[in-house]
Automatic annotation (TrEMBL):
InterPro entries: GIY-YIG_endonuc, GIY-YIG_endonuc_sf. Residues 21-95 form the GIY-YIG domain. The lineage of its organism: Bacteria, Bacillati, Cyanobacteriota, Cyanophyceae, Oscillatoriophycideae. It comes from the Bacteria. This is Nuclease subunit of the excinuclease complex.
């Protein structure tokens, strides 16, 4: 009796971590019950952690949800059964060219990020390159807007909305520090919820790298005061707010926690290597 892939156990393409760790013949099947691909795996779960067809199947999955069905088999039978089933079912993707996703240069994603947040971030200085460290540019954001329209929430949305892009550019977050409230806060009270919102906005240190330069974004209590004296310079070719040279020393003395060990930002330190077109 021929195997019936449509009657087999299956998981959706978005839930591949639910696959069993067994040897099996597997079938990629879309919502129209078309068999897209047939393969074999000594360990089904491991095989789908980095499958060479995943990009093509994810594209199809957007319009016709894909599931992975499987039949447990002995290792010794995998080759013979796979060849027979491919010949019988003639799946659409077997023996076709593997399609790879377009790789987006990191500087293009970084430029898009800067354009979106150019009015919300201020370059306050940089640390020059050393024998052990890359040059490090420091930017500040206003954490006091704790609403969904605040900078912290917007950056988190940007990361989520762009995590599908195939690029080496990554925005990594680590804790910056917490705002402490009274010890006698009642759990679930308005005051406790307000403090939680403040910490979600404040407790963020985002770090990213682009073309050999590290960029850090951290909160400041003094955003409005710093913003009032800024002018504009370019970072990765995008116009950003910066501290004028004649104000840098005064601001460093006035807000030492924000400007500790930083030098005046003179030139665009991010080299541009790509031209769109």
């Amino acid at each position: 009796m021929l195997l019936d892939p449509l009657a087999m156990s299956s998981v959706e393409l978005d839930n591949l971590n639910q696959l069993p760790d067994c040897s099996a013949i597997y079938f990629a099947i879309d919502s129209q019950n078309r068999i897209l691909y047939i393969g074999q795996a000594v360990n089904l779960l491991t095989r789908w952690k980095n499958h060479h067809r995943i990009y093509q199947l994810q594209e199809i999955n957007q319009d016709y949800p894909v599931r992975i069905a499987w039949q447990v088999c002995n290792n010794e039978e995998l080759n013979e059964i796979e060849l027979y089933l491919i010949k019988h079912f003639q799946p659409l993707l077997n023996r076709t060219q593997v399609k790879s996703p377009q790789i987006v240069p990191s500087e293009l994603v970084f430029q898009n990020f800067l354009r979106e947040f150019s009015r919300r971030l201020i370059i306050i200085g940089f640390k020059p390159q050393t024998s052990q460290e890359l040059p490090h540019i420091h930017l500040k954001y206003d954490w006091t807007d704790c609403s969904p329209k605040g900078t912290a929430a917007k950056i988190k949305n940007f990361i989520q909305e762009n995590n599908h892009i195939n690029t080496s550019f990554k925005i990594r977050r680590k804790p910056w520090g917490r705002i402490r409230g009274p010890e006698d806060f009642q759990i679930g009270s308005r005051a406790q919820k307000a403090l939680a919102r403040q910490n979600r906005s404040y407790n963020n240190h985002w770090e990213m790298a682009c073309n050999g330069v590290i960029i850090s974004i951290t909160p400041t209590d003094n955003y409005k005061q710093i913003k009032s004296i800024t002018n504009f310079q370019k970072l990765a070719g995008v116009k950003m707010r910066t501290i004028p040279e004649h104000d840098f020393k005064r601001m460093s003395n006035q807000y030492p926690d924000d400007f500790a060990d930083l030098s005046y930002f003179v030139d665009d330190l991010v080299p541009l290597l790509w031209i769109e077109g």
